[in-house]
Structure formats: C-alpha cells, structure tokens
C-alpha cells in the first residue's frame, strides 16, 4: 500500500501546475501508466477470489490509458489548447471512476479494495493536477505520507525529489 500512495508525489513532481501543455500531459500519462504497471505487478498478491474483478479493472484502466495517450497526441497538434488536453484527462477520469465500474469492485475483500482505491487515488491525483484541479467531482483517496513516499520510490522518484515534495 505504501508504494501505491507515493504515486501522488510522482504526479506533483512530474507536472508543473501552470498551463496544461502537451509535454506536461505526456508526463502525466506516463505517471498514470506507471501506476497501472505497479498495480499489475501486484496482481499475484491479490487473493484468488478477487483476481477476476481486479484484473478486469486493470484492463479497463489500461484501455483508458491507451485512449488517453491517443487523445493527447490528437489534441497536441498545431492548434493545441490546454482545454483540449484537459478534456482528454476528464474523459479518462470519468471512465475510470464511473459508478458502474466502481460498483464491480465492491465484491473485493477489504484489503484488495483498499489497495485498488490507493492506485485509483494516485491516478486521480494526476488528473487533478494536470487539469489544475478543475475536476472538483473527482477526489483522490486519502493516503498516508509513508504510503505516498513508498509509491513514489516504486515509480522511479528519488528520495531527494520526494523530500522536495514534502514526503
């Protein structure tokens, strides 16, 4: 769990909170992909009864991330605007946090739910940063500082970068 929370740190360090540029969007998408990869790497640790729901949700996240990458490329043309790029992330977040998809996760045991909520929280933090917190209906799952630090290390941040971000 610790490593999952640190993704929010990765997001905050990887993305400037100024205008939403194509470069920043691509960095954010890379952080989101790293979060999904961390979640996938933990699949063998998930109880057998939760495997199907867990992997189905990760498949959804992977598909949405792929679509997000395509959207960013298409929105990054000559007439690129931060609004177009922000729209890509908003659609991604809406798909990831749709009530229908989240309802399927209620069948998971408490530990698996908690782990997945942490990953979702990290991803949503990335989305919130890139759209400059313009998506108030989507809030990250609270995570401890220790969890955030561990996840930041897992996705490739250095201890000094984590310290700079306050973790």
Strand content: under 5%
Please indicate the count of domains. 1
Q: Quick one: how many beta strands?
A: 0
Helix content: 55-70%
**What is the number of helical segments per DSSP (H or I, 4+ residues)?**
9
Describe the overall structure.
This protein is an all-alpha fold and 167 residues long. It has one domain. It is built from nine helices and no strands. Helix 2 crosses helix 8 and helix 4 runs antiparallel to helix 5. The longest helix has 25 residues. The N terminus is likely disordered.
For this entry, give a set of tags.
167 residues; single chain; 69% helix; mainly alpha
In short:
The chain has helices spanning 2-5, 7-14, 22-41, 51-75, 82-96, 99-104, 110-130, 145-154, 159-164. With 167 residues, it is mainly alpha-helical.
Secondary-structure blueprint:
Layout: H1 2-5, H2 7-14, H3 22-41, H4 51-75, H5 82-96, H6 99-104, H7 110-130, H8 145-154, H9 159-164
Helix pairs in contact: 2-3, 2-7, 2-8, 3-4, 3-7, 4-5, 5-7
